[in-house]
Amino acid sequence: MRTLRGRAGRDDGGGGAERGGLIRHRPAGPRRDRDEEGRARNARPRDGLGRPLPYGSPGVARQPEGVSRTPAQSLAEAQRLLDDGMPFHAHEVLEDAWKAAPEAERELWRGLAQLAVGLTHAARGNAVGGTALLDRGAAAIAPYADAAPYGIDIAGLTAWAGELTGRLTGTGAAVPAARTAPRLRATGHDAGDHPTGDETGDRPGAGG
Q1: Residue 187, SS3?
Q2: How far is CA 173 from the centre of its chain?
Q3: With contact defined as beta carbons under 8 Å apart, do 116 and 91 qualify?
Q4: Which of 1, 76, 159, 173 has the CA that lies 20 to 30 A from 165?
């Protein structure tokens, strides 16, 4: 009894198929872009709002992945990028913080990253995507309102997300990213401030 393996005939064990004495090699798929450490990461250049550009085009450098930062450093870098009108890049910083966060803080950092993505969509003119991410981000950070760590302005961010959602629902027009950017920390905890009180226990970032 003959056993056929696959429609092309007997498996030759080398990526091709042997049929009628000829070995046919399947064309290799497109090579995946990888970062300097060999991890899969799209290398296409992107604009300031993270939109892919054609290969070879000048673009805005993306944030390196897996950078070790304290929460205060993550908030300061994300705020700088938000103020510069680059919420997509700010989301990459906040996503690193989310991945490195202890379990009790993971939803907080994920919510902050979602708010940054929501602003990214809003600046691109994607009202539906922006509204969805802003709502999800606001819901994720809301449980931390009574004891917000690192001076994060939960009340202010929640109000900002609600106001921006209302604008998107009303007009659907793209918003200016820099002028629409929120403040991540309450007054007195702006970027560059040294942690005080309970914040002296700032956890290390990934790999710290």
Answers
A1: coil
A2: 23
A3: yes
A4: 76
Residue of 65, 93, 71 lying closest to 205 (CA atoms)? 71
20 pLDDT more than 70: no
> Which has more confidence, 45 or 93?
93
Q: What is the pLDDT of residues 99-158, one digit of tens each?
A: 999 999 999 999 999 999 999 999 999 999 999 999 999 999 999 999 999 999 999 999
Q: Which residues pair with 152 in a beta bridge?
A: 185
Give backbone dihedrals phi and psi of 181, rounded to 5 degrees, phi first: -65, 140
Cα-based distances in Å from 109 to 58, 64, 140, 163, 192: 31, 18, 9, 21, 19
Q: Sheet harboring 22-25: ordered strands across?
A: 10-11, 16-19, 22-25
Distance CA 160, CA 156 (A): 6
Burial of 203 (0-12, 13-18, 19+ CB in 10 A): middle
Asked if residues 64 and 207 have their Cβ atoms less than 8 Å apart, the reply is no
CA 59, CA 51: separation in Å to the nearest integer? 10
Name the token pair of 106: 């993971």
* b/e 159-183 (16+ beta carbons within 10 angstroms → b): ebbeebbebbeeeeebbebeebbbb
